[in-house]
Each structure stands twice: as C-alpha cells, then as structure tokens.
Amino acid sequence: QVQLVESGGGSVQAGGSLKLSCAASGYRFSSCGMGWFRQAPGKERELVSSISSVGSPWYVDSVKGRFSISSDNTKNTVYLQMNSLKNEDTAVYYCAGGCRFNFWGQGTQVTVSS
After folding, report:
1. In the chain, what is the straight-line distance between the N-terminal and C-terminal CA atoms, in Å?
2. Tell me, what's the pLDDT at 80?
C-alpha cells in the first residue's frame, strides 16, 4: 500500500521561505520520480515541480529561480524548498508519485500574506 505524507506547510509573509517534505512508503520514487502540485481556491490543480527517477528537476515558469526540488533516496523523501514566496503561491500543496502520478498525499496548506 502506497502512502505519501506531506509536511512543512504553514503561514508565512511574502518574501519568506518554507520547506515542504513528502515521505513515501510502499513506493520508491527512484523508479518513476515524484511531483509537487498545488491547488489554489477556485483554480485547477497545477504541477509546480517534479523530479525524475534520475534526479532531473522541472519547474513551472512561475516558480523558477524561487523553488527547488530535491530528494533523499535513503529516506524515500522528496522536498520542495520555497523561497521568495508570493501571495499567489498560496495553495494546498500535494506530492504525487507513480509513473502517471497515480499516488497522492493528503496535501498541506501554504498561506502567504502581505
């Protein structure tokens, strides 16, 4: 049984930083990689960043230069370091795994205020 558990969300002022973590059990993301999605109120869920099975990162344009994805295979955990946060980064953040992102965590709220 695959389980993904996110942590690290919270409230921060604009310009601040947060680091999200996603611990996986029952799934080794070294096989198909992992992704971080977010969903803001009234908006569709979007892929924010992903890391491939060989560690190659990808970022949506709106977070390039501010967010950094990394993984620790020994802990089967993927991280999303978020710097220079903006109000528009406010959303529920989800990690997802599987070759078609078919495994999902429960989400963690990130709130950025001015």
Report:
1. 41
2. 98
